[in-house]
Design a protein that fits this description.
heterodimer, A: alpha+beta, 4 domains, six-stranded antiparallel sheet, 21 helices, B: alpha+beta, OB fold (Dihydrolipoamide Acetyltransferase, E2P), about 20% helix, about 40% strand
């Protein structure tokens, strides 16, 4: 296209694209140099050292260029250069400054950049801490950076084939067919950007993606160390760094996943923190294999067993991160996910398959190549040893991961099955399916995680072990029986899970106190296991008795095997709240009292709902609070609303509300004005719902505050007695008619909020020289002003959040005590 | 792998799959006629919202009742009732998956998954309870 355009800023885009390509070339250079350094290690130490230096320089340049790409894109978004597609699509003028960063990760390219950035930063840390393994580890890390870099290249071959997409594409190129771009002056017509998806305008979206991507990125480090160890055929050096990195990874990825849950819980109306959605599942699975790998690595370190399994698990962890990218970004999930993700066409699809294939083949090749020569212990271990149960526990985590991957991948493999059986397969009820399988995993892992702490490597005295385990088991039995009774947890498998979780907690505490003597640096595992068991307990308590209070058919929960008909009957979860009319929601009386809009590009309206709890015996109000669930009305030019929940937090439960539909009439709608004429005392005017008002005469006003200040202003008030439904006398209304300067008429209304009444009048003189009032009445029908609300109680959800925090704390305690002893 | 490992693993796998198999409810995307053949049984029907036909959501009457018409892949049109609020943008859906059962000639569903084209993005939206 040779056409010239006016007002475009072309420099940042060209600079940005140049930096993308340069940083890509730098990683190729770095990877090749490191590779050469590793190849020449034995032959020529001097040459190897030179190559190593070049590799380092290459990687540093790569890192700096990644920073440069970031800065340019930030500049484009911050300066609102809407000639760039990325800025136009993801940002707008009215967007609050704190969401500028969220624009980065709303789009595909920005999140690939974030991922690249973290891996580049981690690469620098590894570069200076990996010692003898540096050349090999960094070869792998730069290689993965090369592959990741291709996602941002933006090389086009014809119309449909391209390698990667840069964030620096021009808007006019992205939408070539739009007629507006025929005009060289087009930029003057683009007043504002499309703006951030309203669901993402939330503080969780500012912090959740960076943490999650740091977690994803960190899986690269154990991956690279494992491949390096296999490549070198040396299986000692990698153990310590990989242990530390896996601990860090477990903490960060775990935090990232649960932040996603917290985001969903706090700001999305999915009705919970976890829905077994494919996007959630595919981020959980790498964490499961990572944790399994961490435990088999511990086993390998102490006993020399399970080396092969360790490699498989840790390599899988990073491969699964790529697989999750494949699932969530190619649109292949189609029918099964609620999360909004772009399907970027077939180019992205084959591109990610190619990357996955390269990494998978490399891993398989090195594993097969070294399989026979890897050290393994031939002799069978005793049954009551730590290594045996570490192995079993990891195997169970791996089974869980496999189950989740297979079921989440239904859209991937069902086309093949369709080809054979001619049927489309899907999961009918994903929630109850995953729950009913994973509960058994939770039972096993919960009870194993704490018991295994007590076991010793190689040989454990059975009698001592039984004695040590018996006391916590009895305590846990009593406690869990009590909880089951109080919380009426009445399904066998969930009672078992409850016991496993409580047992895990009691056992971890007992271990930290009796065996480790409360020594904090040593008790990382006990804290992490305690936190994990607490997470299980929190999940169970908050989900099992999660109940909807905005329905009138009683409680529901989805754990039992009910028929669809029962589910539907019990699933009447919405309640309608007419304005100013109290409705019973569980133990509360809820009243919708009004709304207030926050102006912006996307109109956000807060709906005020007052909650009141009354003591049944004394009839006194014991508690009052107000929730403000809000919604974007018609966001981004779409019909309907996009709701955000509002939650009341108690220490032992949360009350979670969100809006599903609204109806509010505008007060100035002329069609809703009713007219009447009154002149004599006692003239009555009918109002809605059996209410009426009686005219009680005019009153001339002096210098009344309701009359404007001028000396020649004339004011007349009309008095009305208002009677509500059933003839109950309410307030008197006194609308005022004013003649400013003796000639300009003005009507000052008076209103009665309880019945939505607004009255004003026009004064005139009738033929008989007596005054008469043309009354204009507006009354909002309460039936025309309502919200449809869903309210859910999550009991003991804080147990879950606290458990996550403790688990992450435990990881860090272990990590720091390992780093100290390095 | 040691004998004990193998035994343990087999036990775990057998245990889980034995229990799971009683719960696993695979389904296939069916048509209204197969749902009609077994009233009360849960099905997933793939179809298309009939945008030109009547759609009714009147929260004043019942906030948990959204009625519309859908056409399945065999071309049959049937009334569908969702026990929830009207899903946002259902008029714009390209296709939907309805989970529910048939009764008296009406398909009652608890969940509607839909594919929505937004201007430049394709996003998935679920209504009802997952």
């Amino acid at each position: 296209m040779d056409q010239q355009f006016i007002g475009e800023h072309l420099l940042p885009g060209r600079l940005g694209h140049f930096f993308v390509i340069a940083s890509f070339v730098a990683t190729i250079f770095s990877s090749f140099s490191y590779f050469s350094s590793a190849r020449s290690e034995s032959a020529g130490p001097a040459i190897s050292a030179t190559w190593l230096k070049m590799g380092r320089v290459g990687f540093w340049i790569h890192f700096l260029l990644v920073l440069a790409v970031f800065s340019v894109l930030y500049y484009i978004i911050e300066c609102h250069l809407f000639e760039y597609h990325y800025a136009w699509e993801h940002s707008s003028f009215s967007m609050p400054g704190k969401y500028l960063l969220s624009c980065f990760w709303e789009g595909q390219q920005g999140s690939f950049m974030l991922w690249t950035f973290w891996q580049a930063l981690l690469g620098l840390v590894v570069m200076y801490t990996s010692g003898k393994l540096e050349a090999r580890v960094m070869t792998i890390i730069s290689l993965v950076q090369v592959l990741l870099g291709t996602m941002l290249l933006g090389f086009y071959f014809g119309d449909n084939i391209h390698i990667g997409v840069t964030p620096f594409d021009m808007l006019r190129d992205a939408m070539q067919n739009a007629p507006i771009f025929k005009n060289p002056n087009y930029l003057t017509f683009i007043k504002d950007g499309n703006g951030l998806n309203v669901l993402l305008q939330n503080y969780w979206m500012v912090i959740h993606p960076p943490v999650l991507f740091l977690g994803f990125g960190t899986t690269l480090v154990p991956f690279a160390f494992c491949l390096a160890a296999l490549w070198a055929g040396e299986y000692k050096l990698f153990v310590k760094p990989v242990l530390s990195w896996s601990l860090f990874n477990g903490a960060v990825l775990g935090t990232g996943i649960m932040m996603g849950g917290a985001w969903a819980y706090e700001s999305l109306n999915f009705g919970g923190y976890w829905a077994w959605d494919p996007v959630e599942n595919s981020s959980l699975v790498p964490w499961l294999t990572l944790i399994a790998g961490l435990h088999t690595l511990l086993e390998y370190k102490s006993t020399g067993r399970a080396l092969r399994l360790t490699f498989i698990l840790l390599l899988l962890s990073h491969l699964l991160v790529w697989y999750s990218t494949f699932l969530t970004r190619t649109g292949i999930l189609g029918t099964t996910s609620v999360h909004a993700f772009t399907g970027d066409g077939s180019a992205m699809f084959y591109h990610l398959i190619a990357v996955l294939a390269v990494l998978l083949l490399l891993s398989v090749f090195l594993l097969v190549y070294r399989w026979k020569t890897m050290p393994a212990v031939v002799q069978e271990e005793e049954t009551f040893t730590r290594e045996f149960w570490l192995f079993i526990g990891s195997a169970i985590l791996f089974i869980s991961a496999t189950h989740i991957v297979v079921m989440t991948s239904i859209p991937v493999w069902s086309p093949a099955l369709k080809w054979i059986t001619n049927k489309d397969f899907s999961l009918l009820d994903p929630m109850s399916h995953y729950n009913s399988v994973e509960v058994w995993i939770a039972v096993l892992i919960g009870s194993l995680s704490a018991s295994t702490l007590y076991m010793k490597y190689r040989h454990t005295d059975n009698k001592t072990l039984l004695r040590q385990l018996a006391v916590p088991a009895v305590i846990a039995l009593v406690l869990s029986a009590a909880i089951a009774a109080f919380q009426s947890i009445n399904l066998f498998q969930y009672d078992l899970m409850l016991f496993a979780a409580v047992y895990g907690m009691v056992c971890s505490v007992a271990y930290a106190v009796t065996i480790q003597k409360c020594n904090l640096p040593k008790s990382g595992p006990a804290i992490a296991h305690f936190g994990f068991a607490m997470v299980l307990l929190g999940i169970l308590l908050s989900s099992f008795n999660k109940h909807v209070i905005s329905n009138n058919t009683g409680e529901i929960f989805r754990f039992g095997n009910k028929s669809e008909k029962e589910n539907i009957r019990e699933g009447m979860e919405n309640v309608i709240l007419f304005r100013n009319k109290a409705v019973k929601l569980g133990e509360y009386l809820a009243t919708y009292t009004g709304d207030s809009a926050v102006e912006g590009k996307d109109k956000r309206v807060y709906y005020k709902v007052d909650f009141e709890r009354t003591d049944t015996a004394s009839k006194k109000i014991t508690e009052q609070f107000t929730l403000y669930p809000d919604a974007f009305i018609n966001p981004k030019g779409q019909q309907g609303l996009s709701a955000n929940p509002s939650t009341k937090h108690y220490w032992d439960r949360d009350i979670f509300t969100f809006i599903n539909a609204v109806q509010t009439t505008k007060a100035d709608d002329p069609s809703s004005v009713k007219k009447a004429v009154v002149r004599n005392d006692g003239d009555s005017v009918q109002l809605q719902n059996g209410a009426f008002m009686i005219f009680k005469g005019f009153r001339k006003l002096g210098r009344d505050s309701r009359v404007a200040a001028g000396d020649s202003d004339l004011g007349v008030a009309a008095t009305f007695q208002v009677y509500g439904t059933g003839g109950k006398r309410m307030k008197d209304l006194e609308p005022v008619y004013v003649l400013l300067n003796g000639k300009t008429p003005q009507m000052n209304p008076d209103s009665l909020i309880e019945i939505g009444l607004n009255v004003r009048f026009n004064l005139s003189i009738a033929d008989d020289q007596r005054p008469l009032a043309d009354v204009m009445i507006q009354q909002q029908d309460p039936m025309d002003n309502y919200i449809v609300l869903k309210a859910i109680v999550f009991p003991y959800i804080n147990v879950l959040w606290l458990g996550v925090i403790l688990m992450v704390f435990g990881f860090f305690v272990s990590l720091f005590s390992r780093l100290r002893t390095l | 792998m040691k004998k004990s490992h193998i035994i343990m693993l087999i036990l775990v796998v057998v245990g889980i799959s034995a229990i799971a198999s009683t719960f696993v409810d695979f389904s296939t995307y069916e048509t209204f006629s197969s749902a009609a053949a077994k009233p009360g049984k849960k099905f997933q029907v793939y179809g298309f919202v009939q945008k030109e036909m009547d759609m009714k959501y009147d929260p004043v009457q019942d906030p948990n009742h959204f009625a519309f018409f859908a056409k399945d892949k065999a071309g049959n049109i049937k009334q569908v009732i969702l026990n929830d609020a009207k899903p946002r943008d259902i008029e714009k859906s390209e296709w939907i998956v309805m989970t529910g059962y048939e009764e008296n000639g009406v398909f009652h569903c608890s969940r509607v998954n839909m594919k929505c084209p937004s201007k430049y993005k394709k996003e998935m939206v679920t209504a009802g309870k997952g």
